[in-house]
Amino acid sequence: MVPGKSQIPIPNLANQTFYLMQCRCSLKKLMDKLKITPTGIQVNRDESFMTITWNDDHKSKYSFSLLRHACPCAECRGHENMGPLPDPGVFDRPSEDSPRTHLTDVEAVGSYAITIYWGDGHQYGIYNWNYLRALCPCDVCRGI
Ligand SMILES: [Zn+2]
Ligand SMILES: [Zn+2]
């Protein structure tokens, strides 16, 4: 584990982090149980990343490129891949800098998700909290 990235200050969450690293299926069940939601979402357009702070004090930093690669809409994923969690392949795709990956706006969808508007006019992906947390590219969440 990388110091500083693995600190989860809520004591009873420490054991459950084990499951976060072991199996992405139990991640969904765990999140349903813990009701993990963002406490803050910041977009940094100059450096092309979005940061989400979660109510367990975890911080996720996503490049715009990763968010676009992981767009959860049916058009991007294909109907056969419409699972509740991101396709693991999105983490391996090369970073892209084009209108497709320029985030122009973020809008809340109820209290459970956000929609991201992209520079090429794409805006169909609904990124719910579970999906976004599973998309966290940090070493702890990726089990690296
Ligand atoms: Zn899409
Ligand atoms: Zn993480």
Task: Summarize the structure in words.
This protein has 2 domains: 1-34, no CATH class; 37-142, NE0471 N-terminal domain-like. It has helices spanning 14-22, 24-34, 64-69, 74-77, 129-134, 139-142; strands spanning 38-44, 49-54, 59-63, 103-109, 113-118, 126-128. With 144 residues, it is an alpha+beta fold. α1 (14-22) runs antiparallel to α2 (24-34). The radius of gyration is 15 Å and the shape is globular. The protein contains 6 helices and 6 strands; from the N terminus they run ααβββααβββαα. The model is unreliable at 1-22 (pLDDT under 50). The protein has a 3-stranded antiparallel β-sheet. The structure holds zinc ion (2 copies).
What does the secondary structure layout of this molecule look like, with pairings?
Blueprint: H1 14-22, H2 24-34, E1 38-44, E2 49-54, E3 59-63, H3 64-69, H4 74-77, E4 103-109, E5 113-118, E6 126-128, H5 129-134, H6 139-142
Antiparallel strand pairs: 1-2, 2-3, 4-5, 5-6
Helix pairs in contact: 1-2
This protein binds zinc ion (2 copies).
The site of one zinc ion has 7 residues, from helix 4.
Keywords:
144 residues; alpha+beta; NE0471 N-terminal domain-like; three-stranded antiparallel sheet; 6 helices; 6 strands; binds zinc ion
Order of helices and strands: HHEEEHHEEEHH
Q: Under the CATH scheme, which architecture of the largest domain would be assigned?
A: 2-Layer Sandwich
Number of strands: 6
CATH fold naming of the largest domain: NE0471 N-terminal domain-like
Widest β-sheet, arrangement of strands: 1-2-3
Q: Uncertain spans, ≥5 residues at pLDDT below 50?
A: 1-22
Distance between the first and last residues' Cα: 8 Å
Ligands bound, unique? zinc ion
Which structural class best describes the helix and strand composition?
A: alpha+beta
Q: Per DSSP, what share of the residues sits in E-state strands of 2 or more residues?
A: 15-25%
> Any idea what the radius of gyration is?
15 Å
Arithmetic mean pLDDT:
83
What percent of residues adopt helix (DSSP H or I)? 25-40%
Largest sheet: 3 strands, antiparallel
The rough form would be described as globular
- Tally of DSSP helical segments: 6
CATH class term of the largest domain: Alpha Beta
Tell me the domain tally. 2
